[in-house]
Amino acid sequence: MGLAELLAALEDDAQDEIARLERDTAAQASKLVADAELQARVLHSQPVEAAEARAAAETVVLLSGARLEALRIRRGAREVAFRAILDDLRDRLAGFRDDPRYPRVLGALVRESLAALPAATTLRVDPRDAAIATGVLRELRRDDLAVEACLDTCGGVELASADARLVRNTLEERLENARPDLRLRLAAAAARAAAST
Asked: Do 118 and 94 contact (CB within 8 A), yes or no?
């Protein structure tokens, strides 16, 4: 299972949580607005013009406060969901090496890295990946690369060249690089959930 598939699965899992948080947020915001409107109606029914003006001003303040609170709650819910997604992804990545598809993923990461740095002289991997990486290099006829089993990673590789260029292509690095896209996807999913309620 590639990172894109993991992200898609996690996005699906997060949709229900996001929808629930959005419903809770909307309910809290609606209650705040309803309370503010009730107070405004009570104040508006008073015959004194000063009371009407004060009620109108308080209504504006209460509605603004309710809207701001709803936005704050919604942002907080999205941040909690985003952190939960990242935590879940990290947990999945930590166990991904046991997945039968992992050798193919590692091979793809080696190939991708070599395409980015064909002049590499050293391939660094986690000690648990040394045999797979050696097999991939053999398959690619790249016996010119030294394999160093020195990384501590959930998976992936690091290539180094003699002139100190470096390509780091680990699962953790890819997750970190995907954070902005994940945040955008979560925001889009939340917007879809809000539009459908």
From this structure: no
The beta strand positions in the chain, using DSSP E, are: 120-125, 146-149, 156-161, 166-170
Same domain membership, residue 71 and residue 23:
yes
Both 152 and 113 in one domain: the answer is yes
Domain boundaries, position 123: 101-170
Q: Note the pLDDT of residue 183.
A: 87
pLDDT tens-digit series, residues 14-25: 666 666 666 766
pLDDT category of residue 3 using cuts at 50, 70 and 90: low
CATH number of the domain that residue 122 is part of: 3.30.2320.30
* Mean pLDDT score, 93-99: 92
Same domain, 61 and 116: no
Shared domain for 78 and 123, answered yes or no, is no
CB of 120 closer than 8 Å to CB of 164: no
pTM of the model: 0.62
List the one residue out of 65, 83, 95 whose CA is nearest residue 171: 95
SS3 string of 82-124?
Answer: HHHHHHHHHHHHHHHHHCCCHHHHHHHHHHHHHHHCCCEEEEE
